[in-house]
Amino acid sequence: ALAEAKAALVGYALSSNRPGELPCPDYGIGAGGLDGLSDACAGNGNFVTIGRLPWKTLGLPDLRDASGESLWYAPAIELGGNGPIMINSETVPSLRVIGNNAEPIAAVIIAPGKATSTQSRPQNLTAQMTPGRYLEAFNATADTNVSVIAPNVSTEFTDQVLLITRDKLMPVVERRVLAELRTTLNSFTALPNPTLNAGGDTTCTTGVSQGFLPQTCTTPVVAWPGWFIPNGWRALIWYAYDNPKSIIVDGTGGREAVLITAGPAINGQNPAAPRGLANLLDSIENSDNDLTFETPPIPISATNNDWLLIVK
Questions:
Q1: By the number of CB atoms within 10 A of the CB, which of 124, 249, 260, 310 ranks highest?
Q2: 150 vs 269 pLDDT, higher one
Q3: Does 140 fall in a domain?
């Protein structure tokens, strides 16, 4: 059940109107009670209160664990449905596993297991939405901490926890982003030149072969997807264009344009600084400002988390 729920949540993030966005939990609000539908995210502004997995919103059956209990779920507030925070490769979720503050967690799914000796589970909505009746340790508290093991040997702990990490979710989201942008570019009568600016004046610049995706050109530009500008993706995607088609990718020439997502800042890159080429792409080949590129390794690594897509 946990693996099925995780796959559905990743699929939701890929198909969302805002790439990377996750649904809010089911809190049993409204006449339908615990109907499997996502409700508005609850919380205090720093976290999303844990609730039940919105299985119907995800297109799933009512998943249950081995004890017959339905699953619990919470997204990081930064990725929760219709939130005010931009979602892109550099969004840092605030969920963390106790004892491992280094790895940002996009979402947590929990199978509660059988009741412990201190838990009772009356079959009414108030009890069914009380985490402490089902979950243990930090999982029973509404905050940004997740327990995956018992905090000490004397604590009963029946939770089974499955995490969706930022570093596993965002690479697949980036592929969706590039695929949609490629479709937009290929709808142009002719591909535009890049702009040198990630913000401010983003007019395409004649004679420029590398930079960012432009907003305006001398010829009409097809509108970018609605999520592209508001979520800050322009500054995280490198665009190379050349006509005649002299771009080389992995030793093969004749390419007219490529897109490369930068992924989260690594290798000493500063996400707060202007994201020029050297502060954006990871490999020497892709950041040396010529028209020869290489496909980054799959899977991503600690030294290279870029993703390249040939436009045409």
A1: 260
A2: 269
A3: yes
Write down the residue that tokens 């040198």 correspond to: 196
Range of the domain at 20: 2-167
User: Between 218 and 133, whose confidence is greater?
Assistant: 133
Shared domain check, 262 and 153? no
H helices present in the chain, as ranges:
2-15, 125-128, 166-185
Q: What is the mean pLDDT of residues 199-224?
A: 82
CA distances from 24 to 42, 43, 60, 72, 236 (A): 8, 11, 15, 11, 26
Q: How many CB atoms lie within 10 A of CB 274?
A: 11
**Do residues 233 and 94 share a domain?**
no
Residue 40 lies in a domain: yes
- Express each pLDDT in 111-151 by its tens digit: 988 888 888 788 888 878 888 888 877 777 766 666 665 55
Do residues 239 and 204 touch, judged by C-beta distance below 8 A? no
Of the candidates 114, 200, 194, 186, the residue with the CA atom closest to the CA atom of residue 157? 114
- Give 113's Cβ-side CA count (13 Å radius): 11
Domain count, the chain: 2
The answer as to whether 73 is a domain residue is: yes
Q: What is the pLDDT of residue 113?
A: 84
Residues 146, 269 within the same domain: no
Per-residue pLDDT of 69-92, as tens digits, reads: 999 999 999 999 877 789 999 998
In a domain, 172, yes or no: no
How open is the CA angle 136-137-141, to the nearest 5 degrees? 90
Model's pTM, two decimal places? 0.88
Q: What angle do CA 280, 282, 286 make, to 5 degrees?
A: 90
Answer with the one of 167, 201, 220 that is the final residue of a domain.
167
